[in-house]
Design brief:
The complex is a heterodimer. By secondary structure, chain A is mainly beta. Chain A contains four helices and 19 strands. The chains are: A mainly beta, B alpha/beta.
């Protein structure tokens, strides 16, 4: 076992034995919270996220969020995340907030992308049943961003009759972490022996976006509408991403469904959707299932490739030691290569040995405090 | 002494409406508020509403999640399970939106916090010494 893996495993065990609660200083004016995850993943074929054909142990990450209330109206917050495998230390968000009123809060800085259900909390495993988030919406695509550098206005409007609405309006530059499979398909001349599919960080400038969240009188049921685009000044091709989300969280049963449409002028469009449900059989033992689909379409000419498709059925079996500490065992049956590929993908394409189907399993632990 | 406590308890019980909640909501003695609905209470404790009528910042103080009164308060006022409220705060914390109210381990600590903070609001399970705080009538 590599040293880093041992370190992560020991850290998780040690932290897991602690009381899971935030650290409060000055009567709650300063708060320190954290989260972490680690998992082992394996697959029978392609690499699917941390489930790799050769077996994978090095997926640990740890983050700390700090929030300080400077005054009645001023708040500053930052979150740092360390993920050795992804490249080290990340500044997830760091912003200052001025609270004009409950419906109007202004933020300036680096803010998490207010998008869909998990856009802002994709790294917090204790907020979802599966170890992995849905790939099409929150994975390495140009749908959900990792952060917005700019400003936002948001807040909660007064509730009435059990209905409640909150909103975010934001603008700036959106950072996206993507794996661009299009070139592998439409530009075969670029393929070379030993070639891989690197993770790239892209920045889309001058985007404007919004997210509306409507809580219904049915306890736990809420709907969301998210979208952003680049309508003001295009330094890059015009982009638009939009989609609805529906979520129900009850005491034992929870369910989510989301659909997103992404479009980049003269380049591609994509559709992605998933449905997942989970149920607590006992206060500790939870089972869940998810179906997901993703489809990429190249706009310049009709091209078909398994690299443009993803269809997945997954099941998870979770044991919640505590609401903030969970062990998860999940199985994923994947058809398509949009998110499941061999490491040496160019070789597989050139040799015609790319396999569409992948079975992956992941055993891991996630916690937050 | 026991007699005085009993009298105080009865007086406090009389101060709450007929459909009184199974807990006492307390604010600082200087606060002019006299009654609150469950919805208003919920908005204060979930920080969806953050200002008193005079513009002061509402400073809610919670009880530890393991206490029975927290469970009763959560069920009655938020109409949610403890798990749902926990998930609500996780979402708020890790999206950088807000942090939950400070938690106290006993009624006496809640009373002391409210006594020392003019804008504070808390809840307690029993009629402990209420010096420096005021019990607010609550209604569904």
């Amino acid at each position: 076992m590599p040293k880093s893996t041992t370190h992560w495993a020991l850290t998780l065990v040690a932290l897991g034995s602690l009381q899971a609660s935030a650290i409060e200083i000055e009567e709650g004016k300063l708060s320190l919270n954290g989260f972490a995850s680690w998992a082992y993943g394996t697959s029978d074929n392609n690499d699917f996220h941390i489930a790799q054909h050769s077996g994978h142990f090095d997926s640990g990450e740890f983050g700390l969020a700090l929030t300080d209330r400077l005054s009645d109206r001023a708040v500053v917050a930052a979150q740092l995340r360390f993920a050795a495998e992804d490249g080290g230390l990340f500044l997830d968000w760091a912003f200052g907030e001025w609270r004009f009123s409950d419906p109007i809060r202004l933020r300036i800085g680096v803010i998490k992308h207010p998008f869909g259900i998990f856009g802002e909390v994709a790294n917090i495993g204790t907020l979802r049943p599966f170890f992995l988030f849905p790939s099409g919406a929150y994975g390495l695509t140009d749908v959900s961003g990792s952060g917005v550098q700019g400003a936002s206005i948001g807040g909660t409007l007064p509730s009435a009759g059990g209905w409640e609405m909150s909103y975010d309006l934001y603008g700036g530059a959106l950072e996206l972490r993507v794996q661009d499979v299009l070139d592998k398909v439409v530009d075969p001349a670029a393929l070379r022996p030993g070639g891989t599919l690197p993770i790239e960080t892209e920045k889309t400038k001058y985007i404007v976006g919004t997210r509306l969240v409507i809580a219904t009188p049915v306890e736990g049921l809420e709907a969301r509408l998210s979208g952003y685009g680049s309508p003001i000044r295009q330094t890059e091709p015009e982009r638009l991403v939009v989609g609805p989300s529906l979520q129900y969280t009850g005491e034992r049963f929870s369910a989510r469904a989301e659909y997103f449409f992404a479009y980049e002028a003269n380049y591609h469009r994509a559709h992605t959707a998933y449905l997942e449900a989970a149920y607590f059989l006992t206060p500790h033992f939870q089972v869940g299932g998810r179906a997901e689909i993703y489809r990429l379409i190249f706009l310049q000419k009709p091209v078909d490739s398994p690299l443009f498709e993803h269809r997945e059925i997954a099941a998870t079996f979770n044991y919640w030691f505590d609401p903030n500490l969970v062990a998860k065992l999940s199985f994923h049956a994947v058809d398509g290569n949009r998110f499941a590929q061999p490491i040496l993908i160019d070789d597989a394409i050139l040799n015609g040995t790319l396999k569409r189907r992948t079975l992956a399993s992941i055993l891991g632990m996630q916690f937050s405090f | 002494m026991i007699g005085l406590q009993l009298i105080a308890t009865l007086l406090l019980a009389g101060a709450t409406p007929a459909n009184a909640a199974p807990f006492y909501v307390v604010v600082n003695e200087a606060n002019s508020i006299s009654s609150l609905s469950y919805d208003e209470l919920s908005d204060f404790f979930l920080k969806k509403s953050s200002r008193w009528n005079d513009g002061g910042l509402v400073e809610p103080v919670d009880q530890r999640e393991s206490t029975p009164v927290r469970e009763i308060f959560t069920r009655n006022v938020h109409r949610k399970s403890a798990a749902a409220v926990r998930a609500f705060w996780q979402l708020r914390i890790f999206s950088g939106r807000d942090i939950p109210p400070p938690e106290k381990t006993s009624d006496a600590e809640v009373i002391a916090y409210v006594r020392n903070n003019p804008n504070a609001i808390g809840y307690v399970s029993a009629a402990v010494s209420m010096a420096g705080v005021k019990v607010v009538a609550v209604h569904p």
